[in-house]
Amino acid sequence: MRSIQHYINGQSIGIATQKTHAVLNPATEEQVAEIQHAASEEVNQAVAAAKAALSDWSEASIAHRTKLLYKFRNLVLENEHYIAELITEEHGKVHSDAKGEVARGIENIEYACGFAETLKGSYSEQASTGVDVYTIRQPVGVCVGITPFNFPVMVPLWMFPNAIACGNTFILKPSDRNPSAPEFIIKLMNEAGFPKGVVNLINGGAETVNQLLSHDDVDAVSFVGSTPVAKHIYESGTAGGKRVQALGGAKNHMVVLPDADIDLAADSAVSAAYGSAGERCMAISVVVAVGEVAEPLVNAISDRIDNLKIGPGMQPDSEMGPLISEEHRSRVVDYINSGEAEGATVVCDGRMHSPEQKGFYVGATLLDNVTTDMEVYRDEIFGPVLSVVRVQSFDDALDVIAENQYGNGVAVFTRDGGTARQFQKNVQAGMVGINVPIPVPVGYHSFGGWDDSLFGDTAMYGPEGMRFYTKQKVITSRWPDPTSSQVDLGFPQNT
Fold it and tell me: Is 281 a known active-site residue?
C-alpha cells in the first residue's frame, strides 16, 4: 500500500504521528494508499521553501526555464500510461478517459514551454520626443494551487507549469481522494532538474487550505472546485491581499434544435453526460429540447444508455466507472429520488444498477420533463444524471440558460449557421460549443465560465493564465543631453 507524503524542498516529508486518511479504489472499495495530512508546521515549511527558492528562480533565464519544462514534458509523456493507471485506480474513471486527461495536461505543459513568446511585453519607441515606453511582465511570487478530485493531473497542469514558466514558485494542495498521481508528477519535476523549492506539494483538508489562504507569504491562489468553496477561497484570499482565481461549479446546457441531426445529438449527449460518470465540471447535465425534437431525442438517448457498459475502469470494455466515494454515490441517488418526487419522468434509472463486484456505482440516469424549479435542475449533481427540459422556442432555450446561476459551458446542436451564430452571440456562458458538446478550450486559449462558475478577473491557463501569474510593469525612459535639463513643474505632455 502506498504512503502519500508531502513533497517539500525537493524531498518527501512525512511525520508518522500526524493525521492520515485512507485512499480507496472506488471500483473495489479496497484501500490502495494512505495519505498524510499536513500539520501547521508542514504548511509553513512548504511556504518557506517556495519563498526561499523564489529569488533565484525568478532570476533564471527564460531559456533555462523552458529547457527544464521540456524535460518535464518528456517525462510526463514517457510515463503517461502509468499516470493514467494511478488516476483510474483512485478516481474510478475508465483508463481511456484517464489517458485523455493526461494528454490534455501535457498540452498545457507544451503551452508553458512557449511562454518566451507571451512574456515578451511591448515597446513604443519615441512615444514622446526622446521618450520610449515599454512594458515588462514579472512574477507574482509564491503561488498556491488547490485542485479537485475529478481531474487530479490535468487541473494541476493547468496551473503550475504556467506559474513556474513565469518565474514564480508553487505549492500544490491536491485532493486527498486521489493523491498518488499528483504526487508522482511533482516528483517528475525533481527528476527534470528543477531547483529545490520551486514546486512543492502538501496534503490536507480545510485547515490546510485556510492556513494557506491566510499565510502572509502566499501571493496568489488558484482553485478549481465547487461554487461555495470557490466563493470562500476568493473572499478569504482577496481579503488578505492575494491575487485569486477560483473556478466553481456548473450546470452545463446542451440546446438541441428541431433541425439538428438526432443521432449526432444523442451520441454527444450520452458521451458528455456520462463520461467519467458525470464527474466533470464541463459535463452536460441538462438537454434543452426545443419543440418537436424532444420525443425522438429522448428515445435515442435512452437506446444508447441501454448499451452502455459500466464497470471497473481498467476493464477493457468498460465505458463508465464508479463515483469517487460511497458518500457521493448516496448524494447522487438522493438527487434522483428528489427529481422523481418532484414530478420528473425517470426514463433510465441508474439506481437499479447492481454490479456483481463492490464499488460506488450509479448507472446512467435520464430524467425527462424536468422543470427549472426542481432541485435536480438547480443544483450541480456531479454524477451520471442527465435532465431533459422541454421548451417551445429558441428564445425560450436562451432564457433558461440566462436564468441559471451558473454560466460555465453550453452547446447548441443545429444545421443552421445563422442560428448558431446568434446563439454564440447571445448565450450567457463563458464557453460555447457548436455541435461540440464539451467545449473545453485548447491549451493556447483559456478556460473559465461566468457568474457563479468563476470568481476573479482571469480564467485558467493559456493567455489568461500568463496574465494571472505575472504583474505588468510599465517603464517610461528618456536619455536626454544633460545640458538641456531644467526644472518644469507642469504635468508631462506628449510632444
Answer: yes
pLDDT in tens, 347-395: 999 998 765 678 999 999 999 999 999 999 999 999 999 999 999 999 9
CA gap 297, 303 in Å, rounded: 10
Q: 494: Cβ–Cβ under 8 A, 6 or more apart, which residues?
A: 127, 128, 131
Pick the CATH number of 2-248+453-475 from 3.40.605.10, 3.40.50.1980, 3.20.20.80, 1.20.1600.10: 3.40.605.10
Q: How many CA atoms lie within 13 A of 207 on its CB side?
A: 10
pLDDT digits (tens, 9 = 90+) for 176-186: 999 999 999 99
Q: Which CATH superfamily is domain 252-434 in?
A: Aldehyde Dehydrogenase; Chain A, domain 2 (3.40.309.10)
The C-alpha torsion from 201 through 202 and 207 to 213, rounded to 10°, is -30
C-alpha grid cell, residue 225:
472546485
Nearest to 455 by CA among 260, 243, 288: 243
Cell of residue 123, nine digits: 515597446
Task: Name the nearest CA neighbour of 168 among 176, 180, 157, 160.
Answer: 160
Count CB-CB contacts under 10 A for residue 211: 19
Which secondary structure element, helix H or strand E, spans residue 155, and what is its range? helix 154-165
Q: Which residue in 293, 251, 256, 294 sits closest to 386, CA to CA?
A: 251
**Which of these is catalytic: 113, 143, 281, 348?**
281
Residue 392 Cα to chain centre, angstroms: 34
Query: Distance between CA 205 and CA 159 in Å, rounded?
Result: 19
CA gap 449, 376 in Å, rounded: 21
What number of helices (H) and strands (E) belong to the chain? 16, 23
Residue-range domain boundaries for the chain? 2-248+453-475, 252-434
Q: What is the CA radius of gyration of the chain?
A: 25
Q: By C-alpha distance, which of 130, 290, 209, 229 is closest to 453? A: 229
The alpha carbon dihedral of 373, 379, 380, 385 has a sign of: negative
15 residue type, one letter = I
- Integer angstrom CA distances of residue 162 from 158, 285, 362: 7, 30, 36
Distance, CA of 351 to CA of 357 (rounded, Å):
16
Is residue 331 exposed (0-12), middle (13-18) or buried (19+ Cβ within 10 Å)? middle
**Residue 280 DSSP code:** -
Instruction: Give the C-alpha separation, 41 to 52, whole Å.
Output: 16
Q: Are 287 and 387 in contact (CB under 8 A)?
A: yes
Cβ neighbours around 263 below 10 Å, total? 10
Residue-wise pLDDT tens digits, 410-439: 999 999 999 999 999 999 999 999 999 999
CA atoms within 13 A on the CB side of 355: 18
**Phi, psi dihedral angles at 388 (to 5 degrees):** -110, 120
What's the CA gap between 38 and 41, in Å, rounded? 8
